[in-house]
Each structure stands twice: as C-alpha cells, then as structure tokens.
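dumping these here so i dont lose them again. two proteins, back to back, each one seq then structure tokens. dont judge the mess
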Amino acid sequence: MFVKIDQDHSRFKQIIRGRIKKELRKFISQGELIGKQGKKLISIPVPYINIPHFSFETRQKAGVGQGDGDVGSVIGVGDDEGDGSGNAGNAPGAHILEVDITLDELAEILGEELELPKIEPRGEGRLTSAGSRYTGISTAGPESLRHFKRTFRQALKRQVLSGEYDPQNPRIIPVLEDRRYRVRKEVFRPEHKAVVIYMMDVSGSMGDMQKEIVRVESFWIDTWLRSQYQGIESRYIVHDAVAHEVDQETFYHTRESGGTIISSAYRLCLEMIEKHYSPLEWNIYPFHFSDGDNWSGNDTQDCLKLLENDLMPRCNVFCYGQVESEYGSGQFIKDLDGKFKGNESLITSKIPSKEAIYDSIKDFLGKGK
C-alpha cells in the first residue's frame, strides 16, 4: 500500500513539475513570488488537476437503480437538455491549486527550462570548511556502526584461508575479530563565497513599471545564484546623480527623481569590492539596471574606464540590463556594446517589457560564469 502511495506521490510531483515548466515564462514575468527568499517553501498557483472519477446522473429519470423502466428505454438522456439558462446550480466551478515547492526545486526547474549551465566558481577555493564523513573502516567501534558487508567479507576470507569454508554448505559465521565498523574521518572541502551587487537607476525617467521589471528579474537571478553557492551575500545600490547603498526594501520601493550620473554607482560598487570582497576569495556579480540615459558623454567615458580597468578584472562577469522608458535615450547600452564587443566579461541585455525577463535571465546566466 505504501509503495503505491509513494508511486502516486512521485507521479503527482512529476505532473506538477511539468505544469510549472509549461507556465514558467508566465511565472517569471509575475511578481507574486517576491519576498519569499527567506522561506523554505513557497506556493505556486497551477491549474487544478482532476483525478478521474465516475460522475452520476442527478436528474430523477428512469434507469438502472432508479425505478421501473421499459425495455428499450434510453438511460441518462432526457428531453430537457439545458440551453444555458435557468437558476444557479450547486456544482463547484474550476479551481486553482496552490502547490508548495522549495526555492531549490524552483531553481532547478529554472535551470532546466532555460538550459542554464552549472556555474564554475572562479578562484581556487582557498577557504576551506571542515566536516566529517564515514569514510574509514576500523576493527573496533559501537555496534550501531558495524559494517555488515565488510564483516561477512572478512569472515569469508578467514574461513576460506583456514579451510573451514564448505561450498556445499556455505555458512559464514563471523567471530569477534571479523567485525568491522564505520569510522568518521575529518575532511576539508573548498568553500566558494559569492556576492551579488545590484545597482539601479532611480532617476526621474525610471517609473514604477521599470522598477518592477528590475525587482522581478533580480528575484530570479538571486534564486539561481543561491542554488549554485552555499552562502551568498546581496548588496544594493541606488543612484540618480549620487549613489547610495540601501537595504533590499528601499531598493525595491524607493521613489526618487533627478538627473543620472552612472559613474557614481560604479565608483561606490568598486569601493565596496575593495573594502569587503577580495577577488581571491569571492565570486563577484554586479548587476546594473537603467534606462540608458546618462547625464553626459564625459560621464559615460568615465564609466567605460571604470569597467575596463577596475570592475571587470575583479568580477566573474559584469551584467547590464537596460529597461525601456519613454523618457530615456537608451544610449548607454550602445556605448557598452561598442566599447566591449566580444568581451565575455561584460554581458548586456535589453528588457523592453516584463515578458522579456525570461530571455534576459538567459542572457545573463546562460554562460555559467
């Protein structure tokens, strides 16, 4: 019985996984999942899954089990088929089923559907964390850790060598000296750390829709990167003519206006990296989102120099996402692509709408850096 239940549960999970994959583009473009990072489980709405069942006729007609009937009477079909009008019924309508799923499972589905490669952390993993595993065998230990396979193998060897083993009567009887036990051994494994630095233009040309795009895309980027690293830090920078570090809540909900000096954000990002995140120990992922409208060509040149000489050499990859705004010129992405064409340390992506978030994530994470 329990085996059957396990099979049904496994099949149910496969169906749910397939439904989520099918609707993933729609899920990605919505903001309902934001704010769930700290929870072990999140709820995903999927169409209700009907289990096949018999549906019985409710109308009081002659038929099997419903009174007398004449030979040749048609069962279950009457002359009063509804035409869509009439009183309200009492049958349930269609429902949406909410399914609990872990963020790790969600990240796995995201990776499969977008064909994202596993990230190869940069550096040599100089930091190590100690742990222990049952990788050794000893002749002494508690009975709870006795290794039965090794014990009987040792007993067999002893009986064969001593001539006690009888192939016609293959009885293996371990004695005290045959017993073998699992032993913990301390192991050291490299530990890679990562930081994601989100930067967003909050000048007057960045409206609520542009910020919502940034908010949703940042959530999915965070979800994927957290599935690739044991521990990850997130830092947030907002800028107009001046850059400030803020917390996550402020990053997503701030309302500001003013001009745009992009280099102010890049300088603050560089300062943050130099103070706290050595490239020898950290995998560094800056993401900058803007509508591409910078204050002047001179400031754009400053940005290109900062990227080429300081930021890109220190980071795994520098990502720039440009959202469309009716007030922004959109020039900045053209300047970046013109300067760094073919340079894999910089990835740019145009995000004209929420529907484009799906493809933008693949632009940023599809190279597995």
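---- next one ----
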Amino acid sequence: MRILHIINNLNKGGAERLLVDNLPLYIKADVHVEVLQLSELHSEPQYLKTLLDGGVKCHSLGQTSLYNPLLVMSLVKFLSQNRFDIVHVHLFPAMYWVAIASKFISQKPVLVFTEHSTQNKRSKNSLLKPLEIFIYRSYNSIIAISEQIKDKLISWTGFTDKIRVIRNGVDTLRFEQAPKYDDLFWTNEFSIPRGSVKMLMTARFSYPKDHATLVRALSQLPGNHFLILVGEGPNKEEIKALSLVQGVSERVIFAGFRNDVSSLMKSVDINILSTDYEGMSGVSLEALASGQPFLGSDVAGINDLVPDSRYLFAARNSDAAAQQITNIIANPALKTSMISDGLEHASKFDVNYTLNNHLKLYSEIVTH
C-alpha cells in the first residue's frame, strides 16, 4: 500500500510535529509513506531533515502562498503522475485544494482527512456550510482526534458513518530514553540559578495559545520561579513586552525553537500549557509522559485528556494558575502522585496505537 500525507507545510505546529514524529514509524513497520507540502514557505528545516533521516520521501509544490488557487492544478498534475492508494490530508486549506483537485483526476485515490481542531472560523459562517459539506463529502473517511471533534463535525456536516475517532499518540519511549538535564545545564544554557523552580511551556506564540496568563501568574510567584517558553510565532514580541510590564522579564526565558523538548520536559519542575482550546493536545500527552507534573487550561482538548482535575486550572485565570503551581511545589506527595498517574495515563496513548488504527482504517476503505 502506497500512502501519501499532504499538509500545508512543515511549520512548527502540532499537526506538523505529529507527522514528523509518526511517519518514520510507518517506514519501520515496512509501510510505504511519503509527504507532500503544498508550499515550502515557513517550513522548519529540522522537521524536513528528521523525516528524510527516517526514510520518508518528501515532496513540495514550491514556495507559493497556501491560498493560491493554482495549487489545485499542481495537485492534479502531481497526483496523476504519482500513484498512491491512500492520500491522507491535514489542515486547511490543504483539505479544500485536495478535495477540488480530486474531481479532475481520472484515477482518484482514496482520500482521508484528519480534523485536528475543535474550532475554526469556517464553522461560524453559515454561508460556508454548503461548500464545507461539499468538501468533506469528497473524503472517503474523516478522522476526528477526539469525541468532541467528532460531535462538532456531525453537527456541522450531518455525516455520521464516515467519521471515526482515532486519537493522536505520542512516542512515550522517546521520553523514557531522553537524557535528563541537571541544574548546571539550566545555569549554563539560560542563566537560571541552581535550585530554582523551572516551569516550561512548549507552544507556538499564536492564538489559541495563551502565554500571557502564565506571565501574569509568574508575577505572583516567588523570585526563584522561572518560566521557560519554547517556540516561535507572531505574538512573541507581545509576550516579551508583557513580561516587562509585569516586572518578570528576567525570569521569563524565551528559548526559541528547540530540538531537545523531551529532555527539557523531563528536567523541569512543572510542564504547563495555557490555551483557549485544543483539538487533542499532543504536548499535554508528552508532558504526562515526561515524568514531571503537568498543568493545563481547563478547556476542550485538555480536560478530556488528563487523568483528573489535579492537572487543570481555570482558563485565562492567572490567580488559579499561580495557586495550582504553588500547591504542587509545596506538596511533594501531590507531585509524586501526579507523576505516577500521568505516566500510567500517557501509556494508553502510545504512538503505536495511532499507527495501527490508521493502517486498519486504510485497509478497510481500500478494500471496501
């Protein structure tokens, strides 16, 4: 079976990261898989390198805008010249362009689309609903990564039979085997004093991520607490300015894009994700698998993913975030139980679960 995954680009987002982490496992399972980017613009070179090193053949349609309608003709040409049994699509606008291109291909491949998010602007515009239904109908199967996403898709499209829940998984072994950094690393790398309380958020600086709440929470915490923010994005300068206003600029570390996230997560005191919503938070699962406590906003995509309310704080509530952080740091028994229960919970979402269920779906719809 020949499988092609199509995505907008290999930018530093959650869906992109999932492909980078998961597709080399297809190769290890002796499954033929390739990747097609609609555009190379804004792609992360390290992501591309990781896929190539893992044996995944990668293609691109050039460096055009993702919203260029000429991408439809480029897709028609590529998919006509390169035969695949399954074309698995991720994100908007890739889902639109592939659906439209499929109408012009004589031997149409089986199309699968994964819906990664509980919310999008299109679903709030009733005028787009007929077009949306046309697009979704073009796919043989639609994967929702959570029950909440499935329910919203059914409500929006009216489809029931073609929507299946397959949760994303994480490579738990990668976190088990990751080296753990000592205090000296944090001092040398980020000038964080030894013995400090280190909190880590790994997320792109863009909506729906909510770095601001953690910066405000930090202003309520003792001076030995440091917040490390891993990622890039358009809102980064705004958060830097806020850290100055809050008087915590010396305790907020803007670490940029990192390739050692598993070690960072494994080495801090608390991993945190503050956000307005998630599809299904892979970062939350990774944090649970890291062997350190995790805190996340009490929103869809997190509250249905963590073991219980110990791992949550009220969204956009810096007081609640600061209080939860204080509780964990001050209570070793609570911290130990959160680590233990988090590890057990994360093991249920091992990446092989996702891989096996994707392959099972592919086989079913190809032979249907």
